[in-house]
Amino acid sequence: MVSNVYNIPVYGKPIELEDQGIFYAINRKTGAINNVFHLVYEDNEWYLYQLKNTGKDGEMGWVILADHGDYPLKSIASEEVKRYFDKPEYAEPKGAWQVMRNSRYGIGKFTPVLNDEITRYAMILFSGAEMLVPLLILKADDDVLQSLAQIDG
To answer: φ and ψ at 85, to 5 degrees?
Structure first.
């Protein structure tokens, strides 16, 4: 079996405060932004929100991603991360995944072994104990945030 998961010592929370912010997914066919997420750390807990249409005159609003009141994201054990990502489709690039989740939704952070590779993030859906295919998301820089503000306003 291909093994691309490394146990890298982590000090503090697996996903750090500097990781919070706005993330977005790109539609592969159109190149347009089609999903916007917000990772927030508040009251000593992590939460994941999605920007959705509220149905009120086209207004958009943040909706927490959770099922049945299970709101906060919790770090998952290294053994679970290994079980999810120790598969051929995740063999390259080599690096370490860190994942937080509630009962249905999660966020993953991929730290590559090579310094010239960028840190990547994924929004992950879970069906019970099984992980569905992660959705690659990008952390929004100032330019993207400006364009999102224009869409919202």
So the answer is: -110, -5
**Whether the Cβ atoms of residue 126 and residue 67 lie closer than 8 Å to each other:** no
What sign has the CA pseudo-torsion 44, 62, 26, 103?
Answer: positive
Classified as helix, coil or strand, 21 is: strand
Say if CB 22 and CB 140 are below 8 A apart. Answer: yes
**Euclidean distance between CA atoms 12 and 141, whole angstroms:** 25
Would you state the structure tokens that stand for residue 77, as one six-digit string? 């054990």
User: pLDDT of 75-115, one tens digit each?
Assistant: 998 889 989 998 999 888 888 899 999 999 999 999 888 77
Cis link prior to 14 (omega < 30° from 0)?
A: no
